[in-house]
Design brief:
By secondary structure, the protein is an alpha/beta fold. Helix content is 42%, strand content 11%. The protein has 26 helices and 22 strands. 52% of the residues are buried. The mean pLDDT is 95.
């Protein structure tokens, strides 16, 4: 582990000790890569992707990395993690084997493949650790360049902590904003739009970010000439070079095998970013990848003999050895001794990791075999059971799957015998115990989750009238939020100077400043990334996406990063980001879509809230700021000018999450909807009452979570009929809603008619008022759909309309 630097001058002996320590870490890391690949090829591990060839620049980065700093990298940074003391050899192999014990495999407890790293930001109860006292790594993800947007937010947090006073518990997250966010990426991945979007945003914002590009000239098998103009990312980014009186980057270039120059370069970069909050890009070129991209192939297939010979000569470890010998830091014999010891240490730690992984499973194997042998003695299917026992016993390194498969197959053979009950109990217990290792922590399991928030009703004056624009209720509630929660900030396209396009933030920037209420560029992916990174560092950001349709630009970051964060760290990191947007009915193909089915199926791990009015929306924001989970709030675009009552208790009233609201009680049919469409449902229900049909109207309020008290089925038990009205495409959110009601709530027990849906057409909504009318459900559509369902029940009372 590399120690924090001090200002005390190094003696040559101290220098020698430090260099040899660095070399030892790099050599251990290389041995881990070499032995790790063998473990994959022998079948002990599923897949391997390693950091060989990148060891020396990662040592240099680790030297400049201080307590409180954050890394947002990709899956080749094992040397760096070892150098900052956050990854042991045994933990490296535990990750390779997919060990589900968080103590053995602290990166993700086997939920991610090896090479994906994270540190623990939270205590066991979900509260924050003091992140300034430790070196931090945000949890890695595999999608190419998807670590970039989060990096922006991690860096921006330092700017906020440096320039905004009064933030709650700021000392746990920052020391005067001196922390750097360190990013890493492979050269080929800089071709992704997420890279360029983040680089541009960082240059605009001027945040303390140091971006390392590991350049080994290839992206898997594809050479840089097919990836990057001029075959050089630093060349094509020269326009971003910061000049006098301009913003931008400091761009540095260094050879990846030159230890001394790397150390100097990273020290220079750290000083610039840490002190001046100027972003830096370091193009680390002339790197190698000795084993190719991953364990699924060999680089000899696509590199010619000249390239392979060059890589052997300029391997960073070989060059570091030559340099150490040249300056008398170590003799060849001393280096060889370090190499041999590294091989031994890695082999022993690998063996320990394997034993820790396999021995508990072998014990479970033995436990089941013992039970099955007892059951077999009295079974009429004894021979078949004994065969299954023999097959299971023959597996020297069993998987949990193989154990459970055997148990379930035997259960079929004894379903009418005395052994069934004991085996059934064993299977249930084993499944419940094991399933949690793979399925826990999709949402918060702490006392800070959304269900811990108590409902608080809006309070009104005695003579309150519905004469206040909905947008003013949002505005005044945001005003209360920013006063009550100094760690809260909001940012988005047009969110600042004009107070958002619908004036829900009118006057807020003038009152709270440009850092807390901020305009940003047109770049939805990095708007979400800003929010994720800042939330990872204890702030409470609200990231605004101007319209629901624009969410598609950011859905990958929401799905792959934010939604999976708590799950992939087994509850050791959290980012309680609130995403604010508006949608549903407007005009035309691109601004009136309601792709709710796509959203709710892509973002499990994020709550999706669909308020029908602005008081309800404001209550959701108040609730979310009391808990520790991310959420998407979709305001009704046509509701900002509609009149509502003005509450008295801004910032205090709270809309419960996962709880439905019954807007009208009825006896004949249950109508379920959400958002803007509810106004049409209410209008249709009035008209249906005129012809003797009494509808019960339910506002879902939130799609994720869905009706946690199972109140919809209670309504259906009374009415015996169900219609779901939704402006998503057929089979979109309506299919999800039906699945929840019919399957999860067992509503089929109470239905006297086929449950039905009324949705928008399969195409995007056409332009104009007529386009909306013929594309999405109207109140006439709802009336006729309900009437038709009642006609089926009683054609004499409700004669056919057509």
């Amino acid at each position: 582990m590399i120690k924090e630097k001090t200002n005390t001058p190094l003696t040559f002996e101290d220098f020698k000790t430090e260099v040899l320590s660095d070399y030892k870490i790099a050599t251990i890391s290389r041995e881990c890569s070499l032995l790790g690949r063998k473990e994959v090829l022998t079948g002990k591990a599923k897949f391997g992707i390693f950091g060989d060839g990148k060891e020396v620049p990662q040592l240099a980065m680790a030297k400049a990395f201080k307590n409180g700093d954050f890394r947002s990298g990709y899956y080749r940074d094992q040397t760096f993690m070892m150098a900052i003391g956050q990854l042991t050899i045994q933990e490296f192999f535990a990750g390779l084997y997919g060990h589900t014990d968080i103590e053995q495999e602290p990166m993700s407890a086997g939920r991610q493949m090896g090479g994906h790293f994270a540190t623990h930001s939270l205590n066991d109860d979900g509260t924050w650790k003091d992140l300034t006292k430790q070196k931090n790594s945000s949890a890695d993800i595999s999608p190419t360049a998807a670590q970039m947007p989060r990096l922006l937010g991690l860096a921006q947090a330092s700017k906020i902590y440096r320039q905004v006073s009064g933030i709650t518990n700021a000392a746990n997250f920052s020391v005067d904003g001196n922390e750097i966010a360190w990013g890493t990426i492979g050269n080929a991945s800089t071709s992704e739009g997420l890279f360029f979007e983040t680089i541009n945003a960082a240059g605009v914002l001027q945040v303390p970010l140091v971006m390392s590009v590991w350049d080994d000239e290839y992206g898997i098998s594809v050479h840089a000439r097919h990836q990057t103009t001029k075959e050089s990312i630093s060349e094509i980014l020269k326009g971003y070079q910061r000049e006098s009186n301009t913003n931008g980057f400091e761009i540095l270039k260094v050879k990846g095998w030159d230890y001394a120059d790397l150390v100097a370069t990273y020290e220079k970069a750290a000083n610039i970013a840490r002190e001046k909050h100027i972003p830096v890009l370091i193009h680390v070129n002339e790197l190698t990848q000795p084993q190719g991209h991953s364990s699924s192939g060999s680089h000899e297939r696509y590199k010619d003999s000249n390239r392979l010979a060059w890589e052997k000569d300029f391997d960073c470890l070989r060059q570091m050895k030559l340099w150490m010998i040249a300056i008398n830091v170590a003799s060849p014999e001393e280096i060889e001794a370090i190499d041999l010891q590294a091989k031994k240490d890695v082999f022993e730690a690998k063996k320990a990791a394997w034993n820790a992984f396999i021995e508990p499973i072998v014990e479970e194997q033995k436990e089941l075999v013992s039970l099955l042998q007892k059951i077999a003695e009295t079974s009429k299917n004894k021979e078949r059971i004994l065969k299954l026992i023999t097959d299971l016993n023959s597996i020297k390194s069993p998987l949990k799957k193989e154990i459970l498969v055997t148990a379930r197959k035997v259960l079929r053979l004894v379903m009418n015998e005395t052994g069934k009950e004991e085996l059934s109990l064993w299977i249930t217990s084993y499944t419940n115990k094991t399933q949690q290792k793979f399925s826990s922590n999709l949402f918060s399991e702490t006392d800070l989750n959304v269900f811990s928030v108590e409902k608080v009703l809006p309070e009104y004056s005695e003579n309150a009238k519905e004469d206040t624009d909905g947008r003013m209720i949002l505005r005044d509630n945001f005003d209360a939020i920013f006063t009550k929660h100094p760690e809260t900030l909001i940012f988005g396209e047009d969110a600042g100077n004009i107070g958002d396009v619908n004036q829900g933030l009118e006057g807020m920037q003038e009152k709270y400043g440009e850092l807390r209420v901020a305009d940003v560029g047109i770049r939805e992916a990095t708007i979400i990334g800003q929010g994720i990174g800042m939330a990872l560092r204890g702030l409470r950001p609200i990231a605004e996406i101007q319209y629901l349709d624009y969410l598609l630009y950011a859905i990958q970051i929401m799905s792959d990063d934010l939604a999976t964060l708590r799950y992939r760290t087994v509850g050791k990191q959290k980012a309680p980001l609130i995403i604010r947007t508006r949608g549903h009915r407007l005009e035309g193909i691109w601004h009136s879509g309601s792709p709710m089915g796509m959203i709710i199926n892509a973002v499990r791990g994020i709550h999706v809230l669909v308020p029908r009015n602005m008081t309800q929306a404001a209550g959701f924001y108040n609730s979310l700021l009391e808990c520790d989970e991310p959420a998407l709030v979709i305001e009704c675009l046509n509701g900002y000018r509609l009149k509502e009552k003005m509450p008295l208790n801004y910032g205090e009233f709270k809309t419960p999450i996962g709880v439905i609201e019954t807007l009208k009680e009825g006896t004949d049919i249950t109508l379920v909807s959400y958002g803007s469409t509810l106004r049409l449902v209410q209008q249709a229900a009035k008209e249906l009452l005129e012809v003797g049909i009494d509808c019960e109207i339910i506002d879902l309020q939130s799609l994720l979570p869905f009706d946690v008290n199972q109140d919809v089925v209670k309504s259906i038990a009374k009415t015996n009929r169900l219609l779901v009205i939704d402006e998503d495409v057929p089979g979109g959110a309506s299919a999800y809603i039906l699945q929840q009601i019919i399957e999860q709530q067992d509503a089929y027990n109470y239905l006297d008619s086929k449950p039905q849906t009324l949705t928008a057409k399969a195409h995007r909504p056409a332009y104009g008022t007529d386009g909306d009318y013929f594309s999405k459900p109207s109140s006439e559509d709802i009336f006729e759909k309900v009437y038709g369902m009642m006609n089926e029940v009683n054609p004499l009372k409700y004669p056919s309309l057509y």
